[in-house]
Design a protein that fits this description.
Specifically catalyzes the NAD or NADP-dependent dehydrogenation of L-aspartate to iminoaspartate. This protein is α/β, with parallel strands linked by helices and about 270 residues long. It folds into two domains: about 130 residues, NAD(P)-binding Rossmann-like Domain (Rossmann fold, 3-Layer(aba) Sandwich); about 120 residues, Dihydrodipicolinate Reductase, domain 2 (2-Layer Sandwich), CATH 3.30.360.10. It contains nine helices and twelve strands. Helix 1 links the parallel strand 1 and strand 2. The radius of gyration is 19 Å and the shape is globular. The mean pLDDT is about 95. The structure holds NADPH dihydro-nicotinamide-adenine-dinucleotide phosphate and oxaloacetate ion.
Amino acid sequence: MPQQPPIRVALLGLGAIGARVADGLRNGAAPGAVLAGAVVRTPGAATARGIAELDLDDAIASSGLVVECAGVPAARELGPRVIAAGRDLLLVSIGALADPADRARLLDGPGVCRLSSGAIGGLDLLRAATRDGGLARASLTTTKRPAALVQPWMTETERAALLGLTEPTRILTGTVQDAIARFPSSLNVAVALAAATGLWHETEVRLVADPRAPRTEHVIEASGPAGEYRFAAANAPLPERPASSGIVSQAVLCGIADLARPGGAFV
Ligand SMILES: NC(=O)C1=CN([C@@H]2O[C@H](COP(=O)(O)OP(=O)(O)OC[C@H]3O[C@@H](n4cnc5c(N)ncnc54)[C@H](OP(=O)(O)O)[C@@H]3O)[C@@H](O)[C@H]2O)C=CC1
Ligand SMILES: O=C([O-])CC(=O)C(=O)O
């Protein structure tokens, strides 16, 4: 059988996750895919790593797949341009789907928007459950170290209180929209859960800051006529960026590999 040419992947963002995905692509961790280059915000950040630095138009033109790992604001701004050009997009900052207008721009084509499973699992089963009698409610309880949860909107007093915590403390109880608006680089998983279940308004999100948490935890619970579901992940955080779980770059590489070659993937 003739071999398919490798799929060329352009990265959008080369931070903690993007750099690991780039290394994985260069090391053959996603067979059938090669790195075309990266779109960066800080000029020189890609060339310093020996990676071709692309602007967005080059990235769209020179790749078969754009992989976003640049954060929610960049995904909202640049993701729709990729989709409008008819190029496929693998989205890591799934929080970009929280706003219905952005969601339409990202999901209505002509490019295909794929969602990375990121730091959590179980979304395939929950998606099926929404069809089999349905789900009525869902919740996500995320626990991270306080230092990973400091946000630019926090006052100096709020920031000091968060960093001074000595016991696990719930710092958010709210909707998916509240969660991603307040913690855009920590609660993309909440939006992923809502995208899988369709429970955009019925999902409760809780965020716990735990000064002794050895791992980042995500506990998903959902129930309804289809059944009762509970999934728990305890991920090692990335040492250089504890807000993100280490598993995420591997989830992205699995996704790229599945898109790049035929095989027995879970879809
Ligand atoms: N779905 C999931 O389960 C998860 C999703 N995420 C998402 O992944 C994102 C990336 O995570 P992580 O790598 O740890 O974060 P980092 O902050 O380490 O990396 C983000 C990178 O994107 C770059 N960037 C920002 N805006 C742009 C832009 N407009 N164009 C090009 N590059 C840009 C930043 O550039 P600069 O260096 O110049 O600041 C930075 O290098 C998170 O913000 C979050 O939204 C993370 C974890 C789990
Ligand atoms: O990496 C994680 O554990 C989750 C995360 O940051 C996010 O969903 O934004």
